[in-house]
Request: fold
Amino acid sequence: MDPKAPKLIEQWPTLAGQLRAALIRAGEAELATQVDDLRALKMCACGDDFCQSFYTQPPPDGSYPPDKHRNWYPEADDPGPGWDGYLILDVVDGRIAFVEILDRPPLD
Reply:
């Protein structure tokens, strides 16, 4: 982990609060406790103007191991992450590894 990478809570406090609240509503207390320590290590390089996704762990070489990876996203009946776009987390070995943010106003 790069200690120089900005903490999510310091760089984008509103986003951190929205992420934490969505995880708590979903009963993902273990993931919610990780939010204050997440660091934005590397922004997604896809180039799409609607994408503001970032890695919180070093990117994988290829794909994540299927037996250690799961996706998390708000359930259909949840009010969502706090914006009209999409929030999807890659969780690897119980740790948030990638935060996918699509169609959201600029991170704050």
Summary: The mean pLDDT is 92. Residues 8-102 form one domain. The longest helix spans residues 13-25.
